[in-house]
Design brief:
three-stranded mixed beta sheet; 6 strands; 16% helix; disordered C terminus
């Protein structure tokens, strides 16, 4: 086979390989995406965002998309919004929810930035036995 033939064969193989390995797609907006209320939120000692969210047993960080908005011009103040894209259809209801942590690196925020959460806090939901939520 000639050099040109080998080059064509190699190019064809690369194209077929690329077609078989497409990058993962972002969540599909199937009409479910919600900015849902949270049970509580705070910052830990390292400045990371700690959020307690409702769960039926299958909620994790992959259930949410965390988007930080703000800029240095806003005085290094950033707001984070958590949008749930994947409903928790499990049947193990956890009345205290689950605690999820987003680091500043994951949110793309500098260590000195002020941080807030735009999701509403559900003050009507009670936690059994007076257990802390935050």
């Amino acid at each position: 086979m000639t050099r040109l033939g080998w080059a064509g064969l190699l190019l064809g193989a690369l194209v077929l390989t690329a077609c078989g390995h497409t990058p993962p797609k972002p969540p599909v907006d199937d009409g479910y995406a919600v900015v849902e209320p949270v049970l509580a939120w705070r910052q830990n000692a390292g400045g990371d965002l700690v959020v307690r969210v409702f769960s039926n047993g299958c909620t994790n960080k992959d259930s949410f998309d965390a988007v930080a908005t703000g800029s240095p011009r806003a005085g290094w103040a950033f707001d984070v919004t958590l949008t749930r894209y994947f409903p928790d259809t499990c049947e193990a209801i956890l009345p205290q929810g689950v605690e999820l942590v987003w680091t500043r690196d994951e949110l793309g925020l500098p260590a000195s930035a002020r941080l807030g959460l735009t999701n509403p806090v559900d003050t009507f939901r009670t936690v059994p036995d007076g257990a802390p939520v935050g």
